[in-house]
Q: What sequence folds into this?
């Protein structure tokens, strides 16, 4: 595959770099369909080190012309991928993993919960939901970031209200003009207390966050079979 586009997602004053990377088939063929939340293994041709890495596909399965990713620049393959220019060649294996298979949960309320670049697999889900919104009940997204300048996909998240999708964005710490929730996503879940009956939650992010949210969801009546991970 080849790099179709690469752009920085987070604020210029942020102390880290997160990019939106779009990859298209070099041959022009259509990409395989996939389950929202699945991942892909990405490396560079002829390069053994650093080894390829695993990244969640952030685009909707209905888009057969491009795979999109949200990649934090960190040592290793992620750093190299974040510096690629349009036209560069990459090797992609996938989609792999079980993703968030929502077909059995038609009619349920959906809660998408993630932190940091964990919004990547959730983006795949919400973009898939938009043309199929009538299949589900209430849809709510809980996103958590370190500070306001670490937020990602802000404009897109704000636009989801037009599709009857509620969004809560919280930050761990803040100063200045931020007037949103401060704390962890599990704190917002506790505050809103969504009922677990006829509901399913999709979790994406660090293990500590996933464990904390799972405990909160259990306390709200969510069964383990209705708490989904994408890997």
A:
């Amino acid at each position: 595959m080849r790099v179709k586009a690469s752009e920085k997602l987070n604020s210029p004053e942020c102390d880290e770099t997160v990019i939106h990377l779009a990859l298209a088939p070099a041959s022009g063929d259509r990409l395989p369909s996939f389950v929202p939340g699945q991942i892909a293994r990405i490396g560079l041709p002829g390069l053994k080190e650093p080894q390829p890495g695993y990244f969640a596909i952030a685009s909707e399965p209905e888009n057969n012309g491009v795979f999109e990713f949200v990649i934090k620049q960190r040592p290793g393959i992620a750093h190299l991928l974040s510096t690629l220019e349009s036209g560069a060649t990459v090797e992609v294996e996938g989609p792999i993993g079980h993703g968030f298979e929502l077909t059995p949960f038609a009619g349920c309320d959906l809660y998408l919960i993630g932190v940091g670049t964990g919004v990547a697999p959730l983006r795949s889900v919400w973009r898939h939901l938009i043309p199929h919104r009538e299949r589900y009940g209430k849809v709510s997204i809980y996103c958590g970031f370190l500070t306001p300048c670490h937020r990602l996909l802000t404009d897109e998240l704000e636009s989801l209200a037009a599709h009857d999708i509620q969004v809560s964005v919280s930050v761990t710490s803040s100063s200045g003009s931020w007037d949103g929730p401060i704390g962890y996503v599990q704190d917002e879940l506790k505050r809103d207390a969504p009922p677990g009956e006829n509901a399913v939650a999709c979790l994406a992010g660090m293990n500590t966050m996933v464990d904390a949210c799972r405990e909160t969801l259990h306390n709200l009546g969510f069964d383990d079979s209705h708490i989904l991970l994408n890997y």
About this structure: Residues 32 and 147 are 36 Å apart (CA to CA). The helical segments are 77-82, 119-129, 154-159, 185-192, 207-219.
